[in-house]
Request: fold
Amino acid sequence: MDDGHCSLPAGELIPLTQQLLPAPELSPQQRKEKTLAALLAQLDGPAREQPVLMLFEDLHWIDPTSLELLTAIVDRVQHLPVLLLATARPEFTPPWPSQAHVTALSLTRLSRRECVALVERITAGKVLPDEVLEQILARTDGVALFIEELTKTVIERRHADRYGRPVQDGRAAAGAGHPDDTARFAHSATGSLCADQRSCADRSFYRA
Reply:
């Protein structure tokens, strides 16, 4: 202070004044716009320092305000070193279908040959009984996630023959148990899969 006058620089004085004066009342729409603008600004800083990867899942469940923010982000990233990946079910209609920097990829269920190859890769040489393999293929419906989970469950629990002896791998596994026993085993293991999660197939991926 000098002769009763403030000597603070303007850059420091303005924020101080804003704290002392009552803030103007904002409408809900204005508050939302300011919040979205602040969230968008958080993206600019990191992207100026290094490339950024952003992931959004299950857009079919997104609420309107979050979708509004995501739409603004999709528009913003075309000017930034940002890779944005988002997933959704086919019923989701994106509000950015015609933007040149956005790529849509649709995933379908695996073919039988691809399913068998995936099971063989997961079992790493272990031979599953034909009945168990068929149960896995039938109940996972070509969804890679559930082929993997159900096959791992079968391996972890192993196969027990009708006398209760564990059978681990190789030719012994192929002859383990009665066909009805192996079928019931695969059926019970499938019970741990959530029916709603089966929709992970037939998804769309959006890349911006």
Observations:
- Residues 28-101 form one domain.
